[in-house]
Amino acid sequence: MKQHLPWLALLAVLTAPMAHAVEYRTVLPKQSTIHFEFRQMGVPIKGGFKRFTTEMAFDPARPEAARASIEIDLASIDAGSPEADDESAGKLWFNRSAYPKATFVSSRIRALGGNRYEMRGTLMLKGRSREMVVPVTYTPGASTAVFEGGFVLKRLDFGIGEGMWADIATVANEVRVKFRIAATGN
Amino acid sequence: MRYSTLAIVLHWLVALLIFATFPLGLYMVDLPLSPDKLKLYSYHKWIGVSVFLLVAIRLGWRLTHTPPALPDGIAAWQRRASAVTHGLLYGLMIAIPLSGWLMSSAKGFQTVWFGVLPLPDLLDKNRELGELLAGVHKALNFTLLGLVILHVGAALKHHFIERQPFLQRMGWNRKART
């Protein structure tokens, strides 16, 4: 054991500053994605948003000070088909001319142990806001870290799909949202 | 001579499903997007999958049984035409649901039979391929329509004009005799 001690000490010296020095602030849009999935007549439909801007600051040594905000351009939707993309802009869905963006702003981030975190924040969609609790996994890399998470939102909480579309037997209420945000330090 | 009861039941069941889902397909494609349209598309696909499975059983029956002989008075060329038409009908009843399933996959919509049983997507999402397969599906269906008209017309002609005991072959009356 004794002969290992210098090595362990060296390892500690080398890794400790690394763990504390990096604060991830610069998001790489091309390596970041937001996808969603919902069921329509029992059929899983995949979609996503191509344009969104993310601002964040995350220091693994001080997760409680971390923050993140995302602004999604709803016009960049892929709702599964061109017909659905067009339909989603209308008043019954996103009412995009009145509410072109969706935003999420974090309020509190808490370490859960390992590389898992819990992010609380407010999701604002179609003029309605809801508190969300989002589990996030942090994967450190050589220069780029990846933050992945997901949550289930109920579309009717936000009035997404009103009138005839409120029928959740046709289009399910639950929408599973998944994101992957890549960021570099400083 | 009469087909077996199983063959007769399957024949009329498949006929009923095709007579329901063909006009449904024509009607639904031009509807504006709505929950009703999504429902009708699903029903159309569920019926199509059902037709495919029932026709697979029918093919199995047909390959293991000899159908009742045609009445004597039927001309040789008509016997050949009958064999070719039946072969094409079977082929189309298999190919049409397949083309619909592949089209649906290419358009990015998995087929889930009765909303419960997911069929695998054999093709990746590809808009151009989806459009192409939609054209194939439509062309095959209108070919089927033509053949069904020929099939029904020939049966009615043999039965009513030539006064041959023809419709009994696929009829419900067990006592029917040639």
Tally the helices of chain B: what do you get? 4
The run of helices and strands of chain A is HEEEEEEHEEEEE
Shape of chain A: elongated
**First CA to last CA of chain B: what distance?**
6 Å
Could you say which overall geometry of chain B the principal axes of the C-alpha atoms support? elongated
The CATH homologous superfamily of chain A is named Lipid/polyisoprenoid-binding, YceI-like
Task: Indicate the topology.
The complex is a heterodimer of chains A (186) and B (178).
Chain A lengths: L4 H17 L2 E4 L5 E8 L2 E7 L2 E6 L9 E7 L3 E2 L3 H7 L12 E13 L2 E10 L2 E12 L4 E11 L16 E15 L1
Antiparallel strand pairs in A: 1-11, 2-3, 2-11, 3-6, 4-5, 5-7, 7-8, 8-9, 9-10, 10-11
Chain B lengths: L4 H24 L6 H30 L11 H31 L5 E2 L3 E2 L8 H35 L17
Antiparallel strand pairs in B: 1-2
